[in-house]
Amino acid sequence: MTTPPKDTGFEAQPYYGICTFGRRPHTRELDGVDVAIVGVPYDGATSYRSGTRFGPRAIREQSLLLWGYNNALSVAPFKALKVIDYGDVDVVPVDVLATHAAIETEVSKIIQEGSKVITLGGDHSIALPLLRAHARKYGRMAVIHFDAHPDTWDTEFGEQKYSHGTPFRRAIEEKLIDTSAYIQIGIRGPTSGAQDYQDALELGARMITIDEAMRLGLGGILNEIRQRVGNKPVYITLDIDSIDPAFAPGTGTPEVGGFSSYQMLQILRGLKGLNLVGGDLVEVSPPFDHSNITAILAANLIFEFLSLMAVNRAS
Ligand code: MN
Ligand code: MN
After folding, report:
1. Distance 98 CA to ligand 1 centre (A)
2. 105 CA to middle of ligand 2, Å?
3. What confidence tens digit (pLDDT) does each residue in 230-282 have?
4. In CATH, what number does 28-314 get?
5. Domain extents for the chain?
6. What DSSP state is assigned to residue 192?
7. Residue 240 contacts residue 248 (beta carbons within 8 Å)
8. How far, in Å, CA of 118 to CA of 115, rounded?
9. How far is C-alpha 52 from the geometric centre of its chain's CA atoms?
10. Which listed ligand is nearest to 252 at the C-alpha?
11. CA-wise closest residue to 278 among 89, 108, 116, 113
12. pTM of this structure
């Protein structure tokens, strides 16, 4: 019987070992940590089909395919930054308020220690406690919001104020968002009426529908984002349904006619130099995924978030 050779790279293979995001150490020790990856396996605020509670685990698993060097941005984020996998927030599947409180507490603690946080969702309701935690440190946030839906509904199912369709209205009401630096991108699909988009505009959002995005092209979209955000500390919230279901079928409320995966990569890379202080990627629902393509895309988009933070560190 032969012994496997040591240090030949087999331990770096994507199928080897226990899953953490990008093979980062799983720890809650925050000393010197630049970025903590945090999972929120929660889908209790979903209006249609659930399953995003399985998102963080699926994204972590596919993140093992990230080899480390971002050729488009010429940066190795795991080398430029100390990145850890903090693990998951303790969520309460049947209690949205308790879950939101747990997210706010846990993420505030990390941010106050001086680390940035990138969150793997979970449904989009979690953006509200995440913005609360960030606003405590940074004040009202500039927000780049990729989504098929404006998520600025007032209530769902009667009186429910906290669902994945309402977080940005609540965040604006709570003065967590600087609406002069708030931009929604990729909005599309049928709604119950014209008022749904009108509501978002009246709250102060700049909305780039998918039609406008395709008219503007990459350069135009990036110009609009830069004009809106400037050099303010900015938070990116990316609902995977902003991408076409042909590229990201594993999500709860798919809308046809969205960005391709390549277009989204280009947009994110175009944000190089913005003062990115945190972000989330939400609504990945593995039970509806095919061949893991949604989770693979999500892992790569998180890699772009990290690369943007690393570029800033390097320059
Ligand atoms: Mn959406
Ligand atoms: Mn959303």
Report:
1. 23
2. 22
3. 999 999 999 999 999 999 999 999 999 999 999 999 999 999 999 999 999 99
4. 3.40.800.10
5. 28-314
6. S
7. yes
8. 10
9. 13
10. 1
11. 116
12. 0.96
